[in-house]
């Protein structure tokens, strides 16, 4: 019986949330993820929950051990650090980036255990950026739950984010691989620059499509790329396989972010864990808005520009209509599908295996979320 079916047993879902740090954290944490997929997967076509389950079943044992290690390495003598850390664990994120480490390393024949530690490093880097981002964006909800800064304030959230960065680099040193440290330290710098670029362009309606692609590569796709790249490197993959998995992560990350930007105008608030129009409310110029401005008449173009400049949701109904009628959402989806195709094509350098198949399914899920 698979772990996913185990998690659907009566009463276990509630128990999982209450026993994250109890005797069997691996079962609880894995089941918490499964619950997240049940309630937050926005796929509506054949690539849906069962497909997601198949992907995680491919590395179920590894994934379970990663969750154990996350709990272990989040421990701290400072009670507030542990409290905020537990809040993060219970938020039930998809853990896509550590999943990429597991699948990528296994896809090129890795058989040891250091990929578990690398997966946790990636997850800690990602979670640290989320904590900091929520402070910068003054967000009060993520994945359908209140953010750490909403619960405990900005200062504790920033400091626990710093703790996670420090713990990630501590574990990175334990891997004793200078090339992996080089990739991840570079990725961390690029991600920070991407966030600064996004901040600089808040309420800027003149952001170009090229600039937008640079921002989403830096702030989102970079860590996807680093995850799959370091997974291959840890496994001593061939040069061709290493490059293939690096490119795979990059294009998969771009596809995911492009779809996220579509869902901000077309998605379901309960499924996304945030409200439709949040990007517009924060004055973020994403590709749907860029394309809509380029393909609307002057009056409608000025309306979108004004909405971006002032932020808020006063003009959301009109902007929603314009991004639909201008073809902006379909254009953005075309870009997302193109990136997913590039990710899939990169996998041709790998031998056939269940792990390669799971990586392929991820490219399909990336775009199916907005189908």
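-> sequence recovered:
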């Amino acid at each position: 019986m698979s772990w996913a079916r185990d998690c659907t047993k009566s009463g276990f879902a509630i128990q999982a949330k209450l026993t994250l740090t109890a005797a069997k954290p691996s079962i609880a944490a894995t089941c918490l993820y499964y619950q997240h997929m049940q309630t937050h997967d926005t796929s509506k076509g054949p690539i849906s929950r069962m497909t997601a389950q198949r992907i995680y079943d491919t590395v179920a044992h590894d994934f379970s051990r990663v969750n154990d290690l996350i709990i272990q390495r989040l421990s701290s003598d400072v009670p507030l650090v542990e409290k905020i850390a537990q809040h993060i664990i219970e938020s039930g994120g998809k853990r896509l980036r550590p999943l990429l480490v597991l699948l990528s390393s296994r896809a090129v024949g890795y058989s040891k255990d250091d990929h578990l530690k690398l997966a946790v490093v990636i997850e800690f880097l990602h979670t640290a950026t989320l904590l900091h981002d929520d402070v910068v964006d003054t967000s009060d909800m993520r994945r359908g739950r209140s953010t750490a800064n909403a619960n405990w304030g900005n200062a504790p959230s920033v400091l626990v984010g710093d703790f996670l960065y420090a713990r990630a680099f501590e574990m990175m040193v334990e891997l004793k691989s200078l090339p992996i440290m080089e990739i991840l330290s570079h990725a961390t710098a690029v991600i920070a620059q991407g966030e600064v670029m996004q901040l600089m362009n808040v309420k800027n309606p003149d952001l170009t499509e090229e600039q937008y692609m640079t921002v989403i590569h830096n702030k989102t796709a970079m860590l996807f790329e680093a995850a799959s790249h370091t997974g291959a490197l840890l496994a001593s993959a061939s040069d061709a396989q290493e490059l293939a998995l690096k490119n795979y992560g990059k294009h998969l990350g771009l596809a995911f972010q492009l779809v996220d930007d579509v869902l901000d105008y077309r998605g379901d608030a309960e499924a996304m864990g945030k409200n439709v129009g949040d990007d517009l409310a924060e004055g973020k110029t994403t590709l749907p808005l860029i394309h809509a401005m380029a393909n609307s008449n002057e009056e409608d173009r000025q309306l979108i520009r004004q909405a971006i400049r002032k932020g808020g949701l006063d003009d959301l109904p009109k902007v929603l209509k314009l991004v639909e009628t201008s073809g902006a959402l379909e254009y953005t989806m075309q870009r997302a599908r193109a990136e997913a195709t590039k990710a899939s094509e990169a996998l041709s350098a790998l031998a056939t295996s269940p792990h390669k198949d799971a990586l392929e399914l991820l490219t399909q899920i990336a775009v199916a979320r907005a189908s």
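The first strand starts at residue 141 and ends at 142.
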